[in-house]
Amino acid sequence: MNFIGIDSPLYDSKIIYRLLAYSKKINGCRIWGKHLNAGKYGTLGYKGRDELAHRLMWWLFGGKPLTPGLVLDHIGCDNPSCIEPNHLREVTIGENVLRGTAPAAVNARKSCCDKGLHEFTPENTIWEKGNRRRCKTCVLDRRELMKKERKKLEVLPC
Ligand SMILES: [Zn+2]
Ligand SMILES: [Zn+2]
Fold this sequence. Notes:
Layout: H1 13-21, E1 23-26, E2 29-32, E3 43-46, E4 49-52, H2 53-62, E5 70-74, E6 88-92, H3 93-99, H4 103-109, E7 125-128, E8 132-135, H5 136-155
Antiparallel strand pairs: 1-2, 3-4, 5-6, 7-8
This protein binds zinc ion (2 copies).
C-alpha cells in the first residue's frame, strides 16, 4: 500500500533547507545558485536522482507534486533558474511551448508569414521538420518567380 505523501519533500527537512539555502531572492525572483541543467533550470539531488529545483519548490509550497502530464511554466519572470513558487504555474506542454522563446514557439505565435501578407491558416501552412512553418502562398509565388526567371534565361540569345 502506498501512503500518499511519504515520498514528499514536505517530510524532508534537509531538502527544504537546501532549496532555501542554495537560492537567493533577487527582484522578487528566487534564483537558484547551484547547478543548472542545459535548459538553465536548477537541479539538485533528491532521493538519489537529479530533480528540478523549481519542481520541488512547487511541490513543497503547493503541498502536492506536479500534476502528471503537466509542466511548470514561469509566469511573469520567464527566468528558468527562478524557483519562486509564486512565479510558477502548471500548464500543458503545448501552452508552455507557445509561451516560450524558442524559434518554434516564436514562429508558432506569428499569425502572418514573414512578408506579413498571408495568414497562417491550416490551408496556407506548410510544416517543415523541427516544427517550422512556411507560408504556402509565398513558397508557390517563389516557385512561379523561379519558373519565369528560368524562362527568361531560356529565351536569351546565345
Ligand atoms: Zn521569478
Ligand atoms: Zn506569405
